[in-house]
Model the fold of this input.
Amino acid sequence: MALEVDEGDWPLVRLRYRGALTAADVTCFQSALTGYLDRGECFAVVVAESPRGRADRGTAKRQMAWLEDERDRLAELHAGMAVVADDDELAAARRSAKARDLSPYPMRLFARLGEAESWAWRRLASRRR
Done:
């Protein structure tokens, strides 16, 4: 599996992908997110290292179906997703209006991990007021 999930600083969750996104990664991430939503606590995600290469066939459809199913809970409990983009191609893909419009939570790109984590912590703090 190419996905690492670090919950050590809950409610900040860090994700790291090693290589291309696989169907198993999507299942793992969706399972983790469902568990976070079931806790009923606000959380934020920092994608510290993004997927590389072509994703397994059908992963985007699975992701979109799950997002639609969990849209209301994500809007309520997911404070935001900060993505560290380290190359122009990835940054361009993440900036797409389609991805932002479909997301029920705020998404933002950062050049550095520290900036991404600071934004995520601020989002969490603003949701707890």
Summary: The chain has a mean pLDDT of 84.
